[in-house]
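Handout for the seminar on molecular recognition.
Each group receives one record of this type.
Step one: identify the two inputs.
Step two: read the structure output and locate the region that could contact acetoacetyl-coenzyme A.
Step three: write two sentences on what you found, then compare them with the reference statements printed after the record.
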Amino acid sequence: MEIREVAVVGLGTMGAGIAEVFARAGIGVVAIEVDAAALGHGLGILEGSLAKAVSRGKLTDAQQAEIWGRIRPAASFSDAARVDLAIEVVPERMEIKRQIFGELDRVCSPEAILATNTSSLSVTAIAAASKHPGRVIGMHFFNPAPVMRLVEVVSTVLSGSALPGQVADLARRLGKTPVQVSDRAGFVANALLLPYLNHAVKLLEAGYASREDIDTAATDGIGLPMGPLALLDLIGLDTALSILQVLQAEFGGPRYTPAPLLRRLADAGRTGRKAGCGLYDYASGARDDGDKAGNEAASSSPSTVTLIGSGRAAEAEFASEVAAAGINVTRNPAHPSDLIVIVAGPDEQVLSAAIATGRPHEAVGLHMAAPGLAEVVSTYMTDPPYAAAAAALAERLGKKTVHTPDRPGFLVGALLYPHLGDAVRMVQDGYASVADVDTAMTLGCGYPQGPFQLLDKAGPAAVLDRLRGMQAGYGDPAFAPPPLLAEHAATGIGFTG
Ligand code: CAA
């Protein structure tokens, strides 16, 4: 069946993005919003996105007009009578979805495909409410829909046998990569993404690190396109909360228990970018990043530094960078200096080395988490001005910095290693294959490398050690390394090879 016209029901951020994707692929779109204000708002999102593409030279004026001409706004379901596919993109409440599928059943032709973009509800339960459950399928796009290449095609036990293939073909026509997934909580990408995002909010709430540092650790330490807190604001805190609740009901355990802060912000209507505020404020049109830059600038780089380390290459390299910047280096803590820097490895703790210097209040750890990112590690004895001086030193050497407590994994590891452990657990428990997980995260969430590629780069044995360290340090079962990781570590065989 050729898809010539579709209906998109619900024109919020995702609905407007999905309507744009169809229209750009040459498919007519009936854009249905029963509420006039919401329809106007959704069309505004679409218009703005097309105008941005024109201003960036990605679309000509003529192409923009053609795409815009394919979109037919509608306030009533009866306008969907002749469409070949209808997709609902409305809030994640089963009663609303059921009502919409009831309307679509009534007006659409019996051959039309009925799709849901739900990210948290059971597609099977939605299908069961339709008079024709065989034609109901999940077609799950990722935000921003015009950019992210993944579409999860979610079939149910009730789906007609040709349906998943038809919808996958359609996704390809839209320029997307379809991945067939079964109707399980979170499908593939969200089941892995959401516990990681939730953990980031827990770190923020516990005062482990600042909002900006958590996000910088993910972008500059792991190489992800966005930090977890900025991403939560993009997804919507209400949507994230719904997905976590479904994951928790299905799997249980602390990784899925929504962070109280996430729940409170969602309850307060601070749902992210769409509300103008979430974990960040967007009131001025741009993201408010606090006064981090001002704080760091206030501290000046030291002129004499005592360098302590365990003689690894990272330490020698750092020592030569410090010397090349014209800063005096001493190795003896008994000699006077402005600051003691302990160059820490990823598994080391800083406190005992700090105490051994006899000047623990002046001692700060620096861990080079990535070529351009230094983690500034404060022990509970570090005086804050020394941490600021260590950050100023690293910045003088051209590195970005994040502040972290002296805890297992520091900040980058605290975000990354449990996420990799979750990925292994998904494969171990037969939830998804290694390839599905890597495809979902690269195409759905813009990871430059999939979790298993990242894991193999670090080495299964190193990831196992870090998780064991975190589990021992916190006593939290959420960090328990999955047995499959231990097996790969023991054999030295990677996951992707
Ligand atoms: N609509 C249309 N196009 C957009 C856009 C939007 N909202 N936002 C960005 N773009 C386009 C830009 O126009 C630009 O296009 P060109 O390269 O053709 O010029 C391109 O995307 C890159 O944008 P920017 O240069 O402005 O910004 P960036 O490089 O920082 O990328 C990003 C922005 C694409 C959002 C990137 O940060 C990213 O990939 N982030 C991860 C997003 C993610 O993880 N999404 C999945 C969330 S989970 C989900 O959605 C599922 C669910 O059920 C909750």
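Reference statements: The chain is about 45% helix and 15% strand. The chain has four domains: 5-182, 189-289, 295-405, 416-491.
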